[in-house]
Amino acid sequence: MTPAEQQEILQGLMGLAEADEFYSGEALGGRPCEAYSDPMRFEQERQRIMMRRPFAAAHSSELERPGSFRTVEMLGTPVLLVRDDGGELKAFRNACRHRGMRLVGEESGCARRFTCPYHAWTYDQSGAFVTGPHFEKGFAALDPTDLSLHELSCSERWGFVWVNLDPKEKASPLASL
C-alpha cells in the first residue's frame, strides 16, 4: 500500500469519526466471507506464514528438570519437547523414524529414553536412535546414525519454549521481528 493510499484511508476514517458514523462501505476494504473460511487459503497461509514463525509451545516451568518432557500439537504437527540431562532444551517431531507412529503418547513426564509403542525403536534425549528389536538382522542396510528423530529449532526466551516447525528457520521470537 502506498503512502497516498494510506493517507486516503486515514482521511476517510477521520471523516467518519467527525461525522460520528460507523464505517460500513466496501470502498475501504470489505472482503467476502470466503476469504476467511476458504480451506485452500488457510493452507497457503499456514505454509507461507505460520510454519515459518516461532510459536510458544510450552512454559519453561513445564520442563524444569533434566529428563522432563512435554508433548504438544502445533498446526497439526505432533512435537516432543525434552530437557536433556545437560539441561539443554530440544524439540523433535513426535514421530518414530520407522513407521511414523507417534513416539510419546503421554502429555508430560520424565524419561531418559523414548520407545515407540509400535515396533519398540528407542531414542535417547538427544533424539539419537539407540536400538530396535532385531535391528541388526532386519535393518542391516540402515545406518543407525541416520535414524535420529527429526529435530526442530527451539529456544527459551521470556519464560517460554519457542519452536519453529520449518527446519530452515530459527525458533527465536526475536528472529521474526
Describe the structure.
The structure is a single chain. This protein is α+β, with helices and mostly antiparallel strands. Helices cover 19% and strands 27% of the residues. It is built from four helices and ten strands. The chain has helices at residues 3-18, 34-37, 39-48, 135-138; strands spanning 55-59, 68-74, 77-83, 89-93, 108-110, 113-115, 122-124, 129-131, 151-157, 160-164. The strands form two sheets. It has a seven-stranded antiparallel sheet with strand order 1-10-9-4-3-2-5, with no helix packed on it. The chain has a three-stranded antiparallel sheet with strand order 6-7-8, with no helix packed on it. Strand 2 (68-74) and strand 3 (77-83) form a beta hairpin. The longest helix has 16 residues, at 3-18. The model has no long low-confidence stretch (mean pLDDT 86).
- In round numbers, the mean pLDDT is 86
* Beta-strand percent range: 25-35%
Distance between the termini: 20 Å
Structural class: alpha+beta
